[in-house]
Write a structure and sequence with these properties.
Elements lengths: L13 H26 L4 H13 L8 H13 L11 H21 L2 H22 L10 H6 L2 H19 L5 H11 L10
Helix pairs in contact: 1-2, 1-4, 1-5, 1-8, 2-3, 2-4, 3-4, 4-5, 5-7
Length: about 200
Amino acid sequence: MGIKELDKLKDWDFHKQAAFAYLTCVRLYPNYVYFSLNYGFGNPSILREAIEYIYDNLFEQNTDKNKIQAIVQKVEENTPDTGDFSVIFVSSALDACTAILDSLDFLIHKDFSKIQSISTYGTDTVDMYIQELENLDFNTDKDFQNKIDNHPLMKKEIAIQIGIIGFLNNSKTLDYGDIQTLLKLQENEKRGSLNL
């Protein structure tokens, strides 16, 4: 599901776009932790280190490409293959990893399509989980998409993304204090976008 308000981000400066990416990574990270702890895969501290690097570089114009490449390699080594697991949580763990990888890539290339992808990882994670949670089948349920769109978890994810976009859109300048405010607004007792 695409967030139409995301188009407002296109014309913003790099720092606001990077902040949106960072906040999405923070929101998806607990989903990876849940998967890692319950299915014995990966090292959440590697992802945490990558997210902290993104945070530390939100206001930097020229990031250390070699450092980013080293972090990317570590994250890739801790990215699950969905073919190796039969549980839905592998998809949410993969989305957390790909959001981080795209955010790191964005720090170097500043390609807005990465921001669009990161937003989609946020909604896709919730979408897949709702399908499993509610036992929804696209082939047999004519109300399939409506049930997903109106589920409380999807409404919350969309509201958070739109709220962040609105906050950033109304900010003339952005600093770490603003980032802390946004973190508090999306805080879910560190249970991530799936409320796990």
